[in-house]
Design brief:
The chain is mainly β and about 100 residues long. The protein is about 10% helix and about 40% strand.
């Protein structure tokens, strides 16, 4: 999660390890992975993306009103941490660019 521009942004998805466990049991997650932006004043959903949501790390640039979604590959993170980055226009959720790895 992160906050910026009067919004709270959150990635809502199961980890790769949890997804593999569900698949072995013949189960699926309750909902598709999603990235949600909430208006901090009203608490209402500002926008939602369910298109190829992969990240575990979010960062916000106030100067550019850009939200970045990425995996955080480091020695102190989970072994199934995703790779890639995607930038959104933070106010609208429009994808600006995406690099898959």
């Amino acid at each position: 999660m992160c906050i910026g521009g009067g919004r709270l942004y959150a990635v809502d998805r199961v980890s790769g390890e949890q997804l593999a466990r569900l698949k072995r049991r013949g189960e699926t997650p309750d909902h598709p992975p999603r990235l949600v932006a909430f208006d901090l004043k009203t608490g209402k959903e500002a926008w939602l993306s369910e298109t190829d949501v992969f990240g575990t790390w979010l960062s916000y640039s106030a100067k550019h009103d850009v939200l970045v979604e990425a995996g955080r590959v480091a020695r102190d993170t989970l072994t199934d941490e995703p790779k890639g980055m995607r930038a959104y226009k933070a106010a609208t959720g429009v994808v600006l660019w995406h690099k898959s790895s």
